């Protein structure tokens, strides 16, 4: 899941080398903390949050197959 998320995010931003994704693995939940250049946060979030919402939907559908839940947080 982390590799998929990293691929998607790096293709959206202007500074792909500054993208950092931290995976915190819990018993029933996986938390992904996404950090990137401050100028690229708008591209990650998208208009009305649609881009980040779509990424969350993808992660949740993959995690649901494993009986888990995925959370994506965009950190400043």
Account of the 3D structure:
- The chain has helices at residues 2-12, 41-45, 50-65; strands at 20-25, 29-35, 69-75.
- The chain starts with a helix and ends with a strand.
- The chain has a three-stranded mixed sheet.
- The chain is of the alpha+beta class.
- It has a single domain, classed as 2-Layer Sandwich (GMP Synthetase, Chain A, domain 3).
- A hairpin with a 3-residue loop joins strand 1 (20-25) and strand 2.
SSE layout and pairings?
Layout: H1 2-12, E1 20-25, E2 29-35, H2 41-45, H3 50-65, E3 69-75
Parallel strand pairs: 2-3
Antiparallel strand pairs: 1-2
Entry keywords:
GMP Synthetase, Chain A, domain 3; alpha+beta; 76 residues; single chain; 42% helix
What is the count of distinct domains?
A: 1
Estimate the global geometry from the Cα principal axes. Answer: globular
Radius of gyration: 12 Å
If strands are numbered along the chain, what order do they take across the biggest sheet?
A: 1-2-3
Can you count the beta strands? 3
Most strands sheet? 3 strands, mixed
CATH architecture classification: 2-Layer Sandwich
Low-confidence stretches: none
Instruction: Identify the CATH class.
Output: Alpha Beta
Number of helices: 3
- Mean pLDDT, nearest integer? 95
């Amino acid at each position: 899941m982390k590799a998929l998320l990293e691929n998607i995010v790096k293709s959206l931003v202007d500074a792909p080398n500054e993208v950092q994704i931290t995976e915190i693995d819990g018993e029933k939940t996986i938390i992904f903390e996404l950090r990137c250049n401050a100028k690229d946060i708008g591209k990650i979030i998208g208009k009305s949050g649609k881009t980040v919402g779509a990424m969350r939907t993808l992660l949740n559908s993959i995690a649901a197959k494993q009986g888990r839940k995925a959370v994506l947080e965009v950190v400043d």
